[in-house]
Design goal:
The structure is a single chain. The protein has helices at residues 2-10, 37-42, 51-57, 71-85, 133-146, 167-170, 184-198, 202-218, 222-247, 291-302, and strands at residues 17-22, 28-34, 62-67, 101-104, 113-116, 125-127, 252-259, 263-272, 275-285. The chain has 303 residues and is α+β, with helices and mostly antiparallel strands. The strands form three sheets. It has a three-stranded antiparallel β-sheet with strand order 2-1-3. A three-stranded antiparallel β-sheet has the order 5-4-6, covered by helices on one side. A three-stranded antiparallel β-sheet has the order 7-8-9. The two termini are 38 Å apart.
Length: 303
């Protein structure tokens, strides 16, 4: 079989393109790109290879190629085919990596913020993308806490009045939207303020809060004025972080790939204004790809 495949490879053109290796069951087990298809595919069927590559070659029963107009076109096509087929011998990222978006489910009675990989045409609002999932998760939690919006796992309106308020309410960190007496309108106002923060309008929000606070004080509603003052202080503390979230995913990213004896590791570090503020890391099975090819493939998948 190896000799038959070698002869088939020798008949390939010297064009850029993508090659798709299949096993006896017709399953795609590896996808690669090549500047010269003939040279690259032929190399698999002669000479010595490392253990992982030999294991992959021993499972090849056939291959297909797609000729591309350029090496760049081949690179893009290879990436899309890898994501579609998830081949056994390609190095792969889980699909929760990369720059995420913050999604707001506007159609819900009590809309919530969540983290998603990409925008969709579903009527929701999307903000970002932001630098790394851990950084984005921390951003959502910080915004919600500053506005005393729920950070618990309760679902609204389903859980309204069903249980006693959680510790966040008793600590003054949440307005208690699980209580029947807490107006839904208050929730909507809080979400509107959060949207202003994620949209980069923190300054405008602070001016709005100050006007509301002064109005409450003039009308001798000092408790409400004090609540607005506390909200202003919390939002002000977010302003520096929000500037980073709203205007730039990251100033610099550093990516690295390390091959161990049993597993390999891919890491992306996010530097913002010279400070290391986020890290994405994934351990994965070894791959027949060379280190440079592996890092190139992972970076394309990540971004």
């Amino acid at each position: 079989m190896s000799e038959i495949l070698k002869q088939k490879a020798l008949a390939l053109p010297m064009n850029p393109g993508v090659y798709i290796m299949k096993n006896a069951a017709g399953e795609v087990i590896y996808v690669g790109k090549a500047k010269h298809l003939k040279n690259r595919v032929t190399s698999y069927f002669h000479g010595a290879h490392n253990q992982k590559t030999e294991a992959m070659i021993s499972n090849i029963a056939d291959f297909e190629v797609i000729i591309a107009a350029s090496e760049f076109e081949a690179l893009v096509l290879e990436n899309s085919l890898i994501k579609h087929h998830m081949p056994k011998y390609n190095i792969l990222l889980k699909d929760d990596k990369g720059y995420p978006f913050v999604r707001l489910s506007k159609k819900d009675e009590y809309p919530v913020f969540s983290i998603v990989n990409e925008r969709a045409d579903d009527g929701a609002d999307y903000f970002g993308p932001f630098g790394g999932r851990s950084t984005t998760k921390a951003a959502i939690e910080a915004v919600l806490k500053s506005l005393k919006l729920p950070t618990c796992t309760r679902k609204f309106p389903r859980d309204i009045g069903r249980k006693r308020p959680c510790l966040n309410y008793h600590m003054g960190a949440c307005e208690g939207y699980c209580l029947e007496e807490t107006p839904r309108e208050n929730y909507k106002k809080g979400i509107d303020k959060a949207v202003m923060i994620f949209s980069g309008k923190t300054g405008e929000l602070l001016r709005q809060l100050k006007e509301e606070m002064e109005s409450e004080a003039e009308n001798l509603r000092f408790e409400e004025a004090a609540r607005l003052r506390d909200t202003m202080n919390a939002v002000s503390a977010l302003e520096t972080k929000q500037h980073v979230w709203a205007h730039s995913p990251a100033d610099t990213d550093a990516a690295a790939f390390y091959r161990g004896t049993a597993k390999s590791c891919f890491v992306v570090l996010h530097y913002i204004e010279g400070k290391l503020l986020g890290k994405d890391m994934e351990l994965m099975e070894d791959t027949p790809e060379e280190d440079g090819e592996a890092l190139s493939s992972l970076i394309r998948q990540y971004y």
